[in-house]
């Protein structure tokens, strides 16, 4: 049995793609996922699965399940506890003396982008906001309010040519804590 978290993009935002978490948990359990828990309404789903499935296989299964049951085409990125632990200790912005944690976001990528596409994103004008890309993760620091920034999922996906979904730092750390609770119980 292995535990994962599925991160859905663009659900329950501004009245769009409304999915009740209670219904989503039931749909996933009926499909065969176990110990399904959700965190907040923005689509963070912790679950267990048997077998040796890759995150990409799980992303497709959950995408197809949501599309079949709810009728929405929703981007899904699946990650695990180890990745969240890695993020929690490797966020380069945490080394700054006086960092406002509310400015930090993590963008999870569906696959590792090419070097050319990374350069295309780095060449885009999204100042004064900052990013550092490491494999399938973008560490982000917004110096403008995130909602007013040019650095958004649309720009990231357009330049990198991969699926992306962002979470603020507090949500990212809370997801790790929820994994830790699963290990203890």
Automatic annotation (TrEMBL):
The record, for PANTHER family, names:
BLL4334 PROTEIN, DUF1697 DOMAIN-CONTAINING PROTEIN
What is the name listed in the Swiss-Prot or TrEMBL entry for this protein? Uncharacterized protein (DUF1697 family)
Lineage, top-rank taxon, reads Bacteria
Q: Which Pfam families match?
A: DUF1697
Q: Tell me which species this is from.
A: Flavobacterium lindanitolerans
